[in-house]
Design goal:
six-stranded mixed β-sheet, alpha/beta, 16 strands
Length: 283
């Protein structure tokens, strides 16, 4: 004979656990970073960048209305997508294309590929669709953002194509050197690069600011320890969330928005990144 009390207790515990993990994986949070630098021109004071990373086809509300509303309220100057907008394990470009179309109505959208895009057999088709939707694709490309009489350099690195083998560090460094051709030492450089573990390369080229993702916040985040595991960094990753500085280069790593191949996040809610630029007086 069933013990109804025990059954109700088990159902209650299951419901509490379900609600907890649903909240951990679906409640949008915002991380704000104020970046001060002597290379930031006065015209770019309070210039706002919203960064989307590692969405992996996730939708916050129907057609991502919750995410788009949150972005709109932030009133960004530009929106950047630092890779893994789609999920290579279940490719479906509809979520990505719709998000770009709607985000483009808020502010200009810039996109670079992540490892999930590069894995796709038909990435070139997806890229074409993203461009048609209004995204400016910066895979190993650069552009100048102009405000008033001033400008900053926006650079983008495509994800390394040899994902399943050793990284082509020299090739990636060469791509970065090509992007930096013609950039003056006092110019402000903003790099979109999916992989935070390549920080030594970014710092060796004296990039001012890097926006990245890929680490999923370390999946599970523990008090006083941080992230537990990240792709290509393994256990207790060095770069999983927040700000890191090396040789004058500042990198901001998003915890990402969507699920990875392991779908549960703990103490690591979906992360929308807001970056606000401020000029700093030269000494």
């Amino acid at each position: 004979m069933f013990n109804k009390t025990k059954i109700f207790k088990l159902l209650f515990i299951f419901l509490v656990i379900y609600r907890f993990f649903k909240n951990q994986n679906s409640k949008l949070t915002k991380s704000t970073y104020k970046v001060k630098h002597t290379h930031i021109p006065e015209s770019f004071s309070k210039y706002k960048i919203v960064a989307i990373s590692d969405l992996h086809n996730k939708s916050f509300g129907k057609n991502n209305t919750h995410l788009l509303t949150k972005i709109s309220k932030l009133k960004p100057s530009i929106i950047v997508i630092t890779g893994d907008l789609i999920n290579a394990y279940s490719p479906n470009s509809e979520v990505a294309i719709n998000l770009v179309k709607e985000a483009k109505k808020i502010a200009p959208v810039y996109f670079i590929s992540g490892n999930h895009e590069i894995r796709l057999f038909d990435y070139q088709l997806l890229k074409k669709e993203l461009i048609q939707a209004g995204a400016i694709v910066l895979d190993n490309a650069k552009t100048n953002i102009i405000r008033g009489h001033d400008s900053i350099h926006l650079l983008g690195l495509a994800d390394p194509k040899s994902y399943f083998s050793s990284y082509p560090y020299s090739l990636l460094a060469n791509e970065l050197d090509n992007l930096l051709a013609g950039v003056k030492p006092d110019d402000f450089t903003l790099l979109l690069a999916h992989r935070p573990e390549l920080m030594p390369i970014y710092a060796s080229r004296s990039i001012d600011l890097v926006l990245s993702g890929h680490a999923h916040g370390g999946q599970f985040r523990l008090p006083f320890i941080g992230g537990v595991f990240a792709p290509n960094q393994g256990l207790f990753p060095k770069y999983s969330s927040g700000q890191y500085t090396k040789s004058g280069t500042l990198m901001i790593v998003s915890r990402g928005l969507g699920p990875s191949s392991f779908p549960l996040r703990l103490n690591n809610k979906p992360d929308l990144v807001e970056v606000i630029l401020y000029p700093s007086p030269k000494n």
